[in-house]
Amino acid sequence: MESSQRSSFDRNVPARMPQSPGVNTGRLRRPRVGAEARSSLFTRLLSTGPKDALRPGYYSIPSYWICEGRRLPFGMFRKTPSGEVIRLSEPNRIYQAMDRLPIDADGPAVVLLKKESRLDLLHYLDRNLDEIVANSLMSVPEKAEIFYYMGYRRMRAAYRNPNRITLGGVKGLIALMVEQILTGRETVKEIFALVQDNVCRTTEHPECAILHSLNVGILATFFVMKVLPNLARDTLEEVALGYFLHNVGMMRLPKEVVDYGGELGDATWPLVRQHPVWGLEMVRDIEEPSREVAHIIMDHHEKLNGKGYPRSLTGVDIHFFVKVGSLVDSFGAMISERSYRQALQVVDALKSIKQRVPHEYDPSIFSKLILVFLENELI
Ligand SMILES: [Fe+2]
Predict the structure, then answer these.
(1) Among 16-20, 48-52, 96-100, 132-136, where is mean pLDDT lowest?
(2) 33: CA distance to ligand 1 center in Å?
(3) How many percent of the chain have pLDDT more than 70?
(4) Ligand 1 center to residue 247 CA distance, Å?
(5) Cα(329) to centroid of ligand 1, in Å?
(6) CA of 115 to the centre of ligand 1 (A)
(7) Rounded to an integer, what distance in angstroms lies between the CA atom of residue 124 and that of residue 186?
(8) Which residue in 3, 121, 20, 136 sits closest to 72, CA to CA?
(9) How far does residue 302's CA lie from ligand 1's centre (Å)?
(10) How far apart, in whole angstroms, are the C-alpha atoms of residue 95 and residue 70?
């Protein structure tokens, strides 16, 4: 399993983003303040932990990630004051209140897990994501990182192997996002920073289609929550599902197309233009999609001037939620590096989109997007 040389997280926890499709180069990443301390919090928690807990061959995780009443597939260890590593529990035990882990004087205790427990740990985090993220001891950056990287894993599972179970995983992720992630201004800022750090170089690469869809799903849902605060929760979650799944049809592209790193040639475009139709077919093979999901997947490449695909719809025939998705889709693509151009900074990407308003994108949605970015201090 290859991992990116650019991300310490990838090196330490390769299961996060195997064959990482690539993030923007360090030069192009968001400006950092006190960067290393802030940007790889999850990395540090999983790989080394506080200096005094550092043990070769072990991950250290905060004890508050351990949920009461849940089965722990991994064994847990602890370092004694004398430096000896002792076993706290065997694998596959259900963690009980009586097992409560000791609290260190300087904060929550750290428990050690053997590095070979990596996949067990990731599965455990995935299964208990809602409860872990809700823990009041969890900091905002930590909450954002765990949500984002676990979210990527669920999206990857659904895109690579779409079925009822993996789709259910994405729906659960959306419910968590709407309830606990996008409701906190500071969490949103952290998520927005992660989106900027994890944009892809080549959207045609399947891994990039997945990561890009996660980014678009988060940003577009946040925008809809802000501009339609009274939207019924069920509808909001269906809209979000459409955004998360909008590019699932890309997974049906032939391997030689998705592996091609350059700008797509004339011969390839007819295939790429099929991905909205394929995407809808793939979802229909699992369940009948809601109107919101169907429209967003099918129409996300339509343009107001009728020059989009696959149906060449014009403005009045494109639903508001679709217009939001296509604008955010373009924004996500512009802040991503391409084989033929560098990534744009957020403000430059917005300027570039402005040049395509109103013939391609809805001017009122564009203005509202700027407002939402400004009001939430994202730009
Ligand atoms: Fe697309």
Answers:
(1) 16-20
(2) 34
(3) 77
(4) 5
(5) 8
(6) 38
(7) 26
(8) 121
(9) 10
(10) 6
Taking only the tens place, the pLDDT of each residue in 227-241 is: 999 999 999 999 999
Closest CA to 378 of 342, 330, 336, 335: 335
% of the chain surpassing 90 pLDDT: 46
245, 200, 153, 244: which is closest to 24 by C-alpha? 200
- Cross-strand partners of 86: 78
> pTM to 2 decimals?
0.84
> In angstroms, what is the span from residue 14 Cα to ligand 1's centroid?
27
C-alpha 11 to ligand 1 mean position (Å) = 30
Closest by CA to 23, choosing from 10, 42, 41, 35, is 10
The predicted model gives 167-188 an average pLDDT of: 96
Question: How is the chain split into domains, by residue range?
Answer: 128-375
Backbone angles phi, psi at 12, to 5 degrees: -85, -35
Name residues whose C-beta falls within 8 Å of residue 39's C-beta, 6 or more positions apart in sequence.
32, 197
pLDDT band at residue 68 using 50, 70 and 90 as cut-offs? confident
Asked if residue 59 has pLDDT above 70, the reply is yes
CATH top class, domain 128-375: mainly alpha
